[in-house]
Specification:
Distance between the termini: 37 Å
Number of domains: 2
Largest sheet: 4 strands, antiparallel
Helix content: 40-55%
CATH architecture of the largest domain: Sandwich
Shape: elongated
Radius of gyration: 18 Å
CATH class of the largest domain: Mainly Beta
Structural class: alpha+beta
Strand content: 25-35%
Order of helices and strands: HEEEEEHEEHHHEHHEE
Number of helices: 7
Number of strands: 10
């Protein structure tokens, strides 16, 4: 598994070698559940190819998208939960075919002690995820659903590097924590305004 670009800092050859020796690589198909809520965390995932969406589920089974984990990133929730022997508070799902290098929890602690840049990597991830979670709170509390929907489409297009998304209205509704009929109505309004074009399970961003 290629390690040259899996971490977002100027890593030394030594830490890459350690990650290779400690880690266990695995490939997931689109839609595969990588981590479930309430599951004990035994290893930290580092995405080497593809992307993951991280969701939170309420008591009624409704989900909301928290953030995406891209190649070169890991899940700070897994870091914190694993190091404190706690269960996962989120669900992680493969957004596309994704390769992940899993680092066992006990090895993560060794890396922290041995490589200062590894701890810096964790702090950088924490800072980034915290800002993204603040954006989610801000969107839910202050933004109208049409703004959230347009931002969702733009983010998804940037992630996939494509102006056309293969996604159903139901999937969007689940990730935004709203109803399918609301998404369908708003998408039709956006099409009428020339912001998107709609097809069968496809949305193309125009702007």
């Amino acid at each position: 598994m290629e390690l040259d670009n899996i971490i977002e800092f100027q890593s030394s050859p030594e830490i890459k070698e350690k990650l290779s020796s400690y880690g266990n690589g695995k490939t997931f198909s689109e839609g595969d559940i990588i981590l479930n809520e309430n599951a004990y965390i035994k290893a930290i995932p580092i995405v080497t190819r593809g992307s993951i969406r991280v969701m939170r589920t309420d008591e009624d089974g409704r989900e909301i998208l928290l953030y995406y984990i891209k190649a070169g990133e890991s899940c700070i929730m897994s870091f914190l939960g694993g190091l404190h022997h706690d269960t996962s508070k989120v669900k992680a799902v493969a957004e596309e075919e994704t390769e992940i290098l899993f680092i066992p929890i006990d090895k993560v602690s060794l890396l922290i002690k041995e490589f200062p840049e590894w701890l810096d990597y964790i702090f950088r991830l924490y800072h980034k995820r915290f800002e993204e979670l603040l954006e989610v709170v801000n969107a839910v509390a202050f933004k109208k659903m049409d703004e959230r929907l347009l931002n969702f489409i733009k983010t998804k297009c940037a992630l996939t590097k494509s102006k056309t998304l293969a996604v159903t209205h139901e999937q969007i509704a689940n990730e935004l924590g709203t109803a399918r009929v609301v998404v369908s109505r708003l998408l039709k309004q956006m099409e009428d305004k020339g912001l998107v074009t709609l097809g069968r399970n496809k949305i193309t961003l125009i702007i």
